[in-house]
Design goal:
There is one protein chain. The protein has 139 residues and is of the alpha/beta class. 47% of the residues lie in helices and 26% in strands. The protein is globular and about 40 Å long. It starts with a strand and ends with a helix.
Length: 139
């Protein structure tokens, strides 16, 4: 079983997937958004390819914990995603500062500004998923 994580933006969706043991997150790709139908088709392909059982979607919250306009858009996306991809659990996960953490990590790795723009959403999805995986109880 694997978990897929999404960092949903207006123009892109960052995608990351867990390993089968649910220890680590790896970036998969950045989907360039064109239409919901095409977005969901590509996500369904990724779900099938990696045998995903759960999709974790980063929910952007305000620093005080409230849901703002961006969070409401993500919640709407999740509602439509749940209808489009059947038989899969979809969860929301607090993603406050995931993009900031991804940016700092890429800067620390001396990744150029142009390259950072290409991978920042994928890295944010990795941070979202790794945070979730780290919160799971271990046996």
């Amino acid at each position: 079983m694997r978990i897929l994580a999404l960092d949903v933006g207006d123009r892109t969706i960052g995608v990351a997937v867990s390993d089968e043991l649910l220890f680590t997150a790896q970036g998969v790709e950045v989907i360039r958004r064109t239409s919901l139908e095409k977005d969901f088709t590509r996500l369904q392909q990724i779900v099938s390819q990696y045998d995903v059982k759960t999709i974790l979607v980063g929910l952007p919250k305000n620093m005080n914990g409230t849901i703002g306009p961006r969070g409401e858009l993500v919640q709407q996306f999740v509602t439509e995603l749940t209808s489009a991809i059947n038989n899969i659990e979809v969860k929301l996960w607090d993603e406050r500062l995931s993009t900031v953490a991804a940016e700092k990590s890429l800067i620390a790795a001396d990744v150029s500004r142009a390259k950072r723009r290409q991978v920042i959403d994928k890295m944010a999805a990795v941070f979202i998923l790794q945070g979730y995986l780290d919160s799971l109880p271990r046996q």
